[in-house]
Design goal:
single chain; alpha+beta; 2 domains; 9 helices; 7 strands; binds manganese (II) ion
Length: 271
């Protein structure tokens, strides 16, 4: 009898705990509050970034680009789940850094949005993120051959390009997708303070201090990978940028970013 009463008490205790946890669970399910309307120029640049990255062969029917909200660093902006080339201003959604949508209104979210939220959490300096399946980088994620800056346009690779292996990070076989916050955090840890990380058997992630910079980096990461494979096919000896050359070249190119950006944006939005 005594044991039964004790079990009943414990059972009641569990359900009481459940009741107490109820309001917290409800609060967690409530959508995060909005930071308010983003700068329309930022929205326009984000739409342009989607289309430019398709034009330049970085994104295709897959992949995504986001920007940190200009009014609140704990919010970011990204399209609903559609092909990047089709993105318009009406498709841009607001997320908190747990990658919960502020106002989904039935719109679908990208499965791998946690890449963006966790990178914004880990890197306060980052204002824009691209996740792509950039085709030329794929061989460098699966061979152990490091991606290295071959010419001045990709000097931002000079700090090194780590490879994220989702199998190591999760400890088990996955479907290869960064589909939860823990995998997003592991990816952010692999990236560290760098500009680009490859994702084994998948693609890459590129970060920047602005949309023009992250687009530039996404484009020239793809071009560098293509050129490096060509150079390695030509010769066993390839001369890469010295780290000091890379730092100097990156500083010189930084102020010129508006030049390709204005061209790419005009072409992308004219379609
Ligand atoms: Mn992906």
């Amino acid at each position: 009898m005594h044991d039964l009463g004790r079990r009943r008490f414990l059972a009641r205790g569990v359900s009481l705990a459940g009741l107490l946890a109820g309001p917290r669970r409800l609060a967690a399910q409530t959508a995060p509050t909005s930071a308010g309307p983003a700068d329309p120029r930022l929205i326009e640049d984000l739409v342009a970034a989607n289309r430019i990255l398709v034009d330049q062969g970085v994104l295709d029917g897959y992949g995504h680009v986001s920007a940190r909200h200009d009014r609140d660093p704990t919010r970011y902006l990204m399209s609903r789940s559609i092909a990047p080339e089709l993105v318009t201003a009406a498709d841009i959604m607001e997320y908190d850094l747990d990658s919960d949508p502020v106002d989904a209104r039935g719109r679908g979210s990208y499965l791998e949005r946690f890449i963006h939220g966790e990178l914004y959490k880990a890197r306060p300096d980052v204002k824009a993120v691209v996740h792509s399946h950039s085709p030329s980088v794929i061989p460098f994620g699966v061979t152990g051959v490091p991606l290295r800056p071959l010419y001045h346009m990709s000097a931002f690779l000079g700090a090194g390009v780590p490879v994220f292996d989702i199998r190591t990070a999760s400890g088990e076989m996955t479907d290869m997708l960064v589909r939860n916050p823990a995998l997003g955090r592991a990816l952010a840890q692999t990236l560290g303070a760098r500009a680009v990380a490859l994702m084994r058997g998948h693609g890459n992630v590129v970060v920047g201090a602005s949309l023009p910079q992250v687009v530039f980096r996404g484009v020239y990461t793809e071009v560098n990978a293509r050129l490096q494979a060509q150079a390695m096919a030509l010769s066993a000896t390839v001369t890469y940028l010295d780290p000091e050359e890379a730092r100097k070249a990156e500083d010189s190119i930084a102020p010129t970013l508006p030049r390709p950006w204005e061209l790419w944006k005009r072409k992308a939005l004219a379609k």
